[in-house]
């Protein structure tokens, strides 16, 4: 096995993403020691039963004391509270990173609490499922997926390099971009699609209630795919929308305009407009499949290579 990339890795939060990191780090020997920290003793006990770390604690300061690399795997809304707690206990020279689905807000919450000797390199693996908790993780989650790294200007290049090498050793391809660009891209490729799924499932459930008819019972493929997305973690997604507000609102405005155009096409019987759009979107899906980024059948987000975000305008 190659030399570990870091001596001590501290994982703050051990849900789907934290436990997937722990599993791949153990399998690939990427750290000599893994310290696992989480707030709830029950979750910590489960992480220990699963053998995800070498040391376990509910105390964030104790977790980071000897760590060379600290990765926060917590809901984005908890970032400030955790940074405030761990900031003074970090080892000088340590690299701090995260996996949050929004980037500008995480940087604004965390950076003020880190001493000058700490290198902060935020990151976001574009890989996940609708499941959460330490049992949900798996070592191949990041294989052939993107991990976007968003270092603030002036970040130490060796620290950026360490975080990139870490994610590449976990199986991901890495790309550096500004946090603002990241937040705009993810708003349309991930955040708005989740909002649409939550909304359509909510509307169908409401319709079922008011009409006292069995809407859900007769749901077929398309709707069921939405219910998978709409089963995603409520805390995580509440935080995503509150912490990527401007970009999500901007993308929702564009989405609503395009939806109105479709509504008008239906109202006025403009079959050509409908046919043209559906032809274009079918070609996009076929392009993704031909590029090897997705399989034909839904596979609950586990296909290696799926989920790489497009640049806006691509
Ligand atoms: N689930 C996905 O598909 C996915 C994909 C990529 C990135 N992310 C991001 O990864 C992060 C973690 O998501 P997850 O899916 O692993 O969630 P999860 O619910 O499975 O795990 C979250 C972990 O954070 C801990 N936690 C919650 N609140 C905390 C607090 N205030 N202080 C300390 N610990 C706290 C929980 O105990 C748990 O261990 C989120 O920021 C999310 O946006 C998620
Ligand atoms: O496949 C899924 O279940 C996901 O929702 C994963 C997904 C995504 O939207 O692609 C969700 C949020 C993350 O920040 C990154 C990945």
TrEMBL record:
Record Pfam families: PDH_C, PDH_N
EC number: 1.3.1.12
One Gene Ontology term of the molecular function aspect: prephenate dehydrogenase (NADP+) activity
Keyword Isomerase: no
SUPFAM superfamilies with a match to the protein in the record: 6-phosphogluconate dehydrogenase C-terminal domain-like, NAD(P)-binding Rossmann-fold domains
Record's catalysed reaction(s): prephenate + NAD(+) = 3-(4-hydroxyphenyl)pyruvate + CO2 + NADH
Pathway: Amino-acid biosynthesis; L-tyrosine biosynthesis; (4-hydroxyphenyl)pyruvate from prephenate (NAD(+) route): step 1/1
The keyword Amino-acid biosynthesis belongs to this UniProt entry's keyword annotation: yes
Gene3D superfamilies: 6-phosphogluconate dehydrogenase C-terminal like domain (1.10.3660.10), NAD(P)-binding Rossmann-like Domain (3.40.50.720)
Ranges for region Disordered: 293-314
Annotated ranges, domain Prephenate/arogenate dehydrogenase: 7-296
InterPro entries membership: 6-PGluconate_DH-like_C_sf (IPR008927), NAD(P)-bd_dom_sf (IPR036291), PDH_C (IPR046825), PDH_N (IPR046826), Preph/Arog_dehydrog (IPR050812), Prephen_DH (IPR003099)
Family: Belongs to the prephenate/arogenate dehydrogenase family.
Protein name: prephenate dehydrogenase
